[in-house]
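Collaborator request log, item 7. Partner lab (contact: R.S.) asked for a structural prediction of Pentatricopeptide repeat-containing protein to inform their binding assays.
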Amino acid sequence: MVIHYSGVTLCINRFSNLWTWNSNIRHLVNQGHAQNALVLFRQMKQSGVTPNNSTFPFVLKACAKHSHRRNSQIIYARVLKSCFQSNIFVQTAMVDMYAKCGHLDDAHNVFVEMPVRDIASWNAMLLGFAQSGFLDRLSCLLRHMRLSGIRPDTVTVLLLIDAVLCVKSLTFLGAVHSFGIRIGVHMDVSVAYSKLMK
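Returned to partner:
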């Protein structure tokens, strides 16, 4: 079967393996065709191919990009029925999906239940708070992250700058810049500063 999605041609047949389906779903998501990736995921299930821990992060990313609550709930239910609900990549994708869809309590619930968290997990949750302007929750989580022994990275500092832009706080921008220097992430905050001054 040849499938055409907004200029993207996919060749899939009934003998296609999981790797082929996952590659095509990932390709659609990365090319900005989130809705088409979700359609392809449904077709994959209808063809009898069972998703794995590589499938769900991209499908959840498609849900996040599409910001569709119903799709998010359906995919989340599928994850819970699978044996991958405890997989760190799947859980991080769920945190990211809920945060980007504006469901921070759901994102935080998944985050808190994670038995293991890596820097990507922490950054996904921090980004949700940053983009929603919840500086108190963001600061609290950042402290908890550092107490847990997770070292912030460049992405962490960038999402903190995103929070600054969201709440338009010069004081917070100075604190973020100092924090970045303390942890060894040196970056020019002049772009953020110029956006704040507009």
